[in-house]
Amino acid sequence: MVVSKSLVISSRNVAQHWILLGIPVLFIIGFFMHYIYEWSGDSTIVGIFAPVNESVWEHLKLTFWPMLIWWITGYIILARNNKISVSQWFNSCTVAVLVCPLAVLCFYYTYTGAFGIESLILDIFSLFLGVTVAQGLALHVYKYAIFIQYCLYISVAILILLAVTFFVFTFAPPHIPLFKDSVTRKCSLGYANFARKQNNITVGKLPVIKKIEPLNYILLLDRTFLSQKTNITISS
Nearest Cα to 66, choosing from 108, 39, 31? Predict the structure, then answer.
């Protein structure tokens, strides 16, 4: 019985160290992920996980994907030699994944909406704040909360739903301010730039494409939206 308790305490300490380690690691990863889409040459795969424009929604990818991968990786590594409850771990993971973007949004809209402040330093700090609050709360949940088995299924469903949502809204964002590019001031499709490069679609004085492969961009390009909203002419 004493051995069992020591194992539980040891596993909690290891889990606690991993969760807290995630604060600086996730912040650094999130910071560099802001630029990775451009560095990749507008890669389709990279764009699913990294921001493809300057909308608030796209920047929430900096919180979601790194945090999800960090928790999954943590379970794979720690569960081998430690008594880690899968239910406790992934329910805590879901808490972190939900809290982090909410904390970022609350802080962001407070200093931009309430005080009218636009600051790159505060933008960066909002990511650090979101990660810190999320990981801290998730650690508390992991150590003290008690979950029934069905909570694990709900948590997994939420994580899958969020992943699908980020994927779909990369290609087809709703036309609301949350998805509005702060540079173009439009709810532009995430991969409009990628599509133009790949298919030589151009705007204004530049040449016009003769053919587009609809199968490659079935979720990406809506001809009506492009022609009406961005003045892109597509000739068949």
Answer: 31
